[in-house]
Amino acid sequence: MTASEGAAGREKMDSGCSARSVRVAIEEAGVALPARTSLARPAFRRPNPPPGWTDLIGDHLVRVDLSTRGSAFKGDVEINPVSRTHIARIAADAEYARRTKQHICSETEEFFLLNIMLGGRPSYSQFGRDIVVDRGHFTLLHTGSPYEFEHSDPMELLCLKIPSSVLLSRVRDPYAFCGTSKLIGGSISRMTRDLMVSLSREIRGLPNDARGMVEDNLLDMVGMMMDQHSSRTIVNGTSARWALHRRAVRYIQENIGDPDMNPCAIAKSLRVSVRHLHRAFEAADQSVHGTHLAMRLEASRKTLADASLKPLSIKEVAHRCGFRSQSHFSSLFRSRFGMTPKQFRTKSIECLQVTPPEPPSLLPDMRQ
Questions:
Q1: Is 367 in a helix, a strand, or coil?
Q2: Pairwise CA distance, residues 108 & 112, whole Å
Q3: What is the Cα–Cα distance from 34 to 37, expressed in whole angstroms?
Q4: What whole-number distance in Å separates Cα of residue 38 and Cα of residue 178?
């Protein structure tokens, strides 16, 4: 695609894609700026990426400030929805991306981005950790926290966009994987990578009623892959307990507003004994009650942060998330998040009204 065809390329859709699937290849002839004096990294142009590239990444993956380098840029991306997740395959020339607090304040839902490197050696910076991710490794990004991403040479990666609550239900501490690079070396890691590669190729032909099942299997594999790399696995018992723990967490998530949910009700729905259920959570160093409470509070936090749900009263939010008593809910919420539900909602709405500043004339050196 030539520079004159760049704008048209933004609208190009692969004939096999669904209405929400996107595939586009972009090539732009650019004008390079003089090289920067810093030797830490190459010169990057003012944020002025090819037509459609920033919008495509922002609309379907994550919003960032983006700049490219050199006299030309080529990029190719295919993004497909699965069920709750999105899977993308991205290939691009040198670029620099920065996610700021302004981007974060403009969104109500948080995600984890699982990036598996297929080619190139991009660098990432998040939570004060600076890393380079080689081919055959993976890393994790959290969209609820600022980060930077850069590569000076062409790169290709697979990206799985996972709602935070979904990954948190499968992995004890996914934040520990942000700003780290992990080798895809074991059989489970390789199977997870291969399943992602296969899904990225075959997703458009997958029936809608099968997507949820395939996604659950993939997410379970992702959980096992991260368990394999964690010093404290989520479940240290048998694979049966491991599977039961995940089934129970999914059940809680799907029925988060049920005020009558308790260990007995969960065990009955999953057709296991209460004792067996408790043992599965104990193997994960968790409790059924503690996990259930944490997930209800997280659901309430997201509801309060959603500006479109502002008409809901605090009492209605509490009931929606399975709390019978507003006062009890407020007490638990304050204990967890350090402020009352009302204070949190006010702060979240104010944050959404922040006007992002104009981009700088030249993006800063992420290694300074």
A1: coil
A2: 14
A3: 9
A4: 27
Spatial separation of the C-alpha atoms in residues 103 and 64, rounded to whole Å: 7
Q: Are 5 and 30 in contact (CB under 8 A)?
A: no
Is 34 in contact with 74 (CB distance < 8 Å)?
A: no
Among residues 93, 223, 247, the alpha carbon closest in space to that of 160 is found at: 223
C-beta separation of 245 from 280 below 8 A? yes
Q: Quick: pLDDT tens for 75-109.
A: 888 999 999 999 999 999 999 999 998 888 888 88
**DSSP secondary structure string for all residues of 178-236:** BT--EE--SHHHHHHHHHHHHHHHHGGGS-HHHHHHHHHHHHHHHHHHHHHH-SS-S--
Q: Which residue has the tokens 């993939």?
A: 218
Give residue-wise pLDDT tens across range 132-152. 999 999 999 999 889 999 999
Tokens coding 153: 């040479």
Cβ-contact 51, 9 below 8 angstroms: yes
Per DSSP, the residues of 90-143 read EEESSEEEEE-HHHHHT-S--EEEEEEEEES--EEEETTEEEE--TTEEEEEET
Shortest CA distance to 80 belongs to which of 220, 253, 208? 208
Residues contacting residue 189 through CB under 8 Å, at least 6 positions apart = 138, 182, 183, 225, 228, 229
> 136's torsion region: left (phi>0), alpha (psi -120 to 50) or beta?
left
Backbone angles phi, psi at 108, to 5 degrees: -105, -20
Q: What is the mean pLDDT of residues 201-219?
A: 89
In angstroms, the first-to-last Cα distance of the chain is: 36
Using CA atoms, how far apart are residues 163 and 161, in angstroms rounded to an integer? 7
AA letter at 231: S
Alpha-carbon distance of 140 to 168, in angstroms, equals: 13
Sequence-separated contacts (24+) of 229-235 with Cβ below 8 Å: 229/177, 229/182, 229/189, 230/171, 230/172, 230/173, 230/176, 232/172, 232/285, 234/170, 234/171, 234/172, 234/284, 235/280, 235/283, 235/284
Angle CA 265–271–273, to nearest 5 = 75
- Structure confidence by residue, pLDDT tens digits, 261-279: 999 999 999 888 999 999 8
